[in-house]
Specification:
heterodimer, A: 113 residues, four-stranded antiparallel β-sheet, globular, B: 110 residues, mainly beta, six-stranded mixed β-sheet, five-stranded antiparallel β-sheet
Chain lengths: 113, 110
């Protein structure tokens, strides 16, 4: 039972490079989320997808785009990476937007030089 | 001012101690309250969930919510070295948007 799987686990980028973080869940969840975690800041919501076919901005969406490819997969794209995007990124999912239990992936540690 | 405040710690206690972790918040509309545990280099996992005010107990863990004081607590009885982790509080007014605290690092010494 894999749960929420994120790839890659680690990535180093140069300023201006682009990359896509992948996330897949095998729990048949409708809602999926992308968070970033920075020291002293807690988890902040970047984008979310309440259901397949919908995406919405969260608290800190600037510099990011997302794609809900299908019910299982929700990707996060950095078009032109900046040092301020150095962070740990977590994907999460839950059954639907009214269910309190969020399941998190193990994270992607991203450094932008 | 942050919507949710949490002391970052670290909090160091001997094995067997009772641990008290706390969060304060400013938004009186919050009604869903959660505690997540996060081990190093892992994603958070849900420990406790409480709706509105009151207490909830699950094994060695007790969650308390005091809405009049805008204060929530997590108590861990008979703490174990395996409880060493970062504990994040989270809360929301509507169930879709969670606001997380910055986390408290707990170290339980053998």
């Amino acid at each position: 039972n894999a749960g929420v799987t994120q790839t890659p686990k680690f990535q180093v980028l140069k300023t201006g490079q682009s990359m896509t973080l992948q996330c897949a869940q095998d729990m048949n969840h409708n809602s999926m989320y992308w968070y970033r975690q920075d020291p002293g800041m807690g988890l902040r919501l970047i984008y979310y997808s309440a259901s397949e076919g919908t995406t919405d901005k969260g608290e800190v969406p600037n510099g990011y785009n997302v794609s809900r490819l299908n019910k299982r997969e929700f990707s996060l794209r950095l078009e032109s990476a900046a040092p301020s995007q150095t962070s740990v990124y977590f994907c999460a999912s839950r059954l639907d937007s009214n269910n309190e239990k969020l399941f998190f992936g193990s994270g992607t540690q991203l450094s932008v030089l | 001012q942050k919507e949710v405040e949490q002391d970052p710690g670290p909090l160091s206690v001997p094995e067997g101690a009772i641990v008290s972790l706390n969060c304060t918040y400013s938004n009186s509309a919050f009604q869903y309250f959660m505690w997540y545990r996060q081990y190093s280099r892992k994603g958070p996992e849900l420990l406790m969930y409480t709706y509105s005010s009151g207490n909830k107990e699950d094994g060695r863990f007790t969650a308390q919510v005091d809405k009049s004081s805008k204060y929530i607590s997590l108590f861990i009885r008979d703490s174990q070295p395996s409880d060493s982790a970062t504990y994040l509080c989270a809360m929301s007014a509507s169930s879709y948007k969670l606001i997380f605290g910055s986390g408290t690092r707990l170290l339980v010494r053998p």
